[in-house]
């Protein structure tokens, strides 16, 4: 498959998120050793800052909590499709989000101050109407600094999400955003054609892709300046863009060759990583050396075929890191 067709296929998959499904989100589906959310998938992940082995999943049908034993429970009272979701870097009760409810009207920028149970709109963001951010990040160094991306615009708020300004109309599709863990001037953009970096809070940027130009689905910024990148063809990578001599390190591939689309790391214990691939969720307790399915089988488990989940219009990150151009 030629790269142009691969990128077009991925765009179509992401565009499909505009029409939320109405699944039984607490049930799971299994195929062999892989378990997945039924007719649902993950748009965002955050570790609970009070219970370090508990994570939050932002999905098509609201926010769910995932316990260490793999059980899911609904957290949000509303079943919004949270296309954007990030946790406050220090306050465990505060989450930020964006997306749309079942009727398709955009939420704008919303905030929860009670651990994801209820949500309140803080701003439409755009003068044209409420936004539906598909990529968001909040600065660890400056929690009042928040970024979102929608429809070619990078928006920035410097007052915790109350007021916003479009700071850069990016000519490429943005898949992910992340700020440097210590320097609030630095913003990273994951795009369909690699990684980009801004040194002026998103006003300007330059490409710094450490690998072949490929989609960067998710970025996590670590305290030592390095990044965890969820790439489309090369899998999960760790790289330090502030160290010119830094080598790109490859983490273990997800089971079954699934492509990670969202990644989160426990800030209190960097050996704990969670990665999602559509409705599949995997957990590592050794810094990405090995992975295990994070979802437990429930009473409503049914047999299904994972092959359609693995090929979503992009090349899967197989163990050899190559793609079959004839697919």
Please describe what this structure looks like:
The protein is 5% helix and 37% strand. With 327 residues, the chain is mainly beta. The chain has a domain at 1-46 and 251-327. The strands form eight sheets. A four-stranded antiparallel beta sheet has the order 3-4-5-6, with no helix packed on it. A four-stranded antiparallel beta sheet has the order 7-8-9-10, with no helix packed on it. A four-stranded antiparallel beta sheet has the order 13-14-15-16, with no helix packed on it. A hairpin with a 7-residue loop joins strand 9 (109-112) and strand 10 (120-123). It is globular and about 45 Å long. Residues 1-32 and 298-327 have low confidence and may be disordered.
**Proportion of beta-strand residues:** 35-45%
The number of E-state strands comes to 28
Work out the radius of gyration.
Answer: 18 Å
Shape: globular
- Integer average pLDDT: 82
Query: What is the helical fraction, as a range of percent?
Result: under 10%
Q: Which sequence of SSEs, written as H and E, runs from N to C?
A: HEEEEEEEEEEEEEEEEEEEEEEEEEEEEH
**Low-confidence parts lasting 5 or more residues at pLDDT below 50?**
1-32, 298-327
Kindly name the structural category: mainly beta
Main beta sheet, described? 4 strands, antiparallel
Strand order of the largest sheet: 3-4-5-6
Distance between the termini: 5 Å
SS summary, helix count:
2
